[in-house]
Amino acid sequence: MSEPRQFIDSALRGVWRHDVAMSRLTSWRAGGIADHVYKPADLDDLVRFMRSFPPEQPLYEVGLGSNLLVRDGGLRGTVLLLHGALSELSLQADGSVYAEAGVPGAKLARFAALHDLRGAEFFAGIPGTLGGMLAMNAGCYGSETWASVLRVQTIDRHGEVRVRTADEYEIAYRHVALRERNDERFIAAWLKFQPGDGEVARQEIKALLSKRIASQPLHMPNAGSVFRNPPGDHAARRTGVRLQCEVRIIGERAESGK
């Protein structure tokens, strides 16, 4: 496979790395070597990257890697690291919160509470970034990501940026799909929360994080909670039955380079 830097814009400001162990980028601490990893400097840099990156080259996006299982054979292609890159988080004039895809859930929850907004507390219980949460309608404790979404911002493999509304997507439990099929990635969203007591919100976030620490082995390699609840039930109560999983598995055809 060709070296991607032979083809793309030399004015890129991000960081290239090569032969990177994906075990360093996933919470399971598993996964073989990725050929190339690129961490954009910011959203403008990502747009420039996408406009010049060869469309035939394999491309993967990774946030916190908390629901990502990578094969030992690694990845042929380039991994985009969005955590710490797409990190803008701001309060808009209409009271909505603009958050880019690399913003972690806990940071989003605390930001909303700081601005006396309620309804974002549950994001602190999701160990991922907003891009992944949008892609799978992540949720916990009875709340889901897309219940707060006003609009999303996407980018395709040609670097075209679009703003879309929720009615352009099929949205269900742990499922999100664009109605008109297109190869787009989420890069940001505008989220709406309700005005409320920020101190109460902060206490709820603190309690939620304490519950996570007590119930999950966060100090060890782990997958967190990745099972989908069966209809009308909870995955934690079901034993001896086949359960669906939310884990995203990449690299199945890495050995062939396809």
Instruction: Give the CATH topology of the largest domain.
Output: Uridine Diphospho-n-acetylenolpyruvylglucosamine Reductase, domain 3
Whole-angstrom Rg? 19 Å
CATH level-1 class of the largest domain: Alpha Beta
Give the biggest sheet.
5 strands, antiparallel
> What strand order characterises the main sheet?
6-7-15-11-12
Query: How many individual β-strands?
Result: 17
- Percent of residues in beta strands? 25-35%
The helical percent reads 10-25%
Mean pLDDT: 88
Topology as a string of helices (H) and strands (E): EEHEEEEEHEHEEEEEEEEHE
Number of helices: 4
* CATH architecture grouping of the largest domain: 2-Layer Sandwich
Notes on the protein architecture:
The protein folds into two domains: 8-84 and 252-256, Uridine Diphospho-n-acetylenolpyruvylglucosamine Reductase, domain 2; 89-213, 2-Layer Sandwich (Uridine Diphospho-n-acetylenolpyruvylglucosamine Reductase, domain 3), CATH 3.30.465. Helix content is 17%, strand content 29%. The protein contains four helices and 17 strands. Helix 2 (105-114) runs antiparallel to helix 4 (198-215). The longest helix has 18 residues, at 198-215.
